[in-house]
């Protein structure tokens, strides 16, 4: 997915049950949909989960990406 020319990404807070209490985790979502711009690849989405919102998570997820980024952060 990181070989595509453009990606959109976002993170969403989720509740995680851990040892009888809830904590806040994150779901990181990355999508591509190039068909509306003439691309031949089908739409796709990738989801990653983390226990926090530290910047190291998207940096690791997108370490090989070198295209156009659309999203709130990074």
Describe this structure in words.
The chain is built from one helix and four strands, in the order E-E-E-H-E. With about 70 residues, it is mainly β. The two termini are about 15 Å apart.
Summary keywords:
four-stranded mixed beta sheet, 8% helix, 74 residues
Write the topology of this structure.
Layout: E1 6-18, E2 21-32, E3 44-50, H1 56-61, E4 68-71
Parallel strand pairs: 1-4
Antiparallel strand pairs: 1-2, 2-3
Computed Rg: 14 Å
- List the total number of helices: 1
Would you report the number of β strands? 4
Largest sheet: 4 strands, mixed
Strand composition percent: over 45%
Shape category: elongated
- Helix percent reads under 10%
Strand order of the largest sheet: 3-2-1-4
What structural class should be given to the helix and strand makeup?
mainly beta
What low-confidence regions span 5 or more consecutive residues with pLDDT below 50? none
Q: How would you describe the oligomerization state of the chains in this entry?
A: single chain
Report how far the terminal alpha carbons are from each other. 17 Å
SSE pattern, N- to C-terminal: EEEHE
- Report mean pLDDT, rounded to a whole number: 85
Provide a quick synopsis of the model.
This protein has 74 residues and is mainly beta. 8% of the residues lie in helices and 49% in strands.
């Amino acid at each position: 997915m990181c070989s595509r020319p453009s990606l959109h990404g976002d993170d969403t807070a989720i509740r995680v049950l851990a040892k009888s209490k809830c904590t806040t985790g994150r779901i990181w979502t990355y999508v591509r949909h190039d068909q509306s711009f003439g691309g031949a690849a089908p739409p796709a989405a990738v989801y990653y989960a983390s226990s926090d919102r530290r910047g190291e998570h998207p940096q690791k997820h997108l370490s090989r990406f070198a295209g156009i980024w659309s999203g709130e952060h990074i």
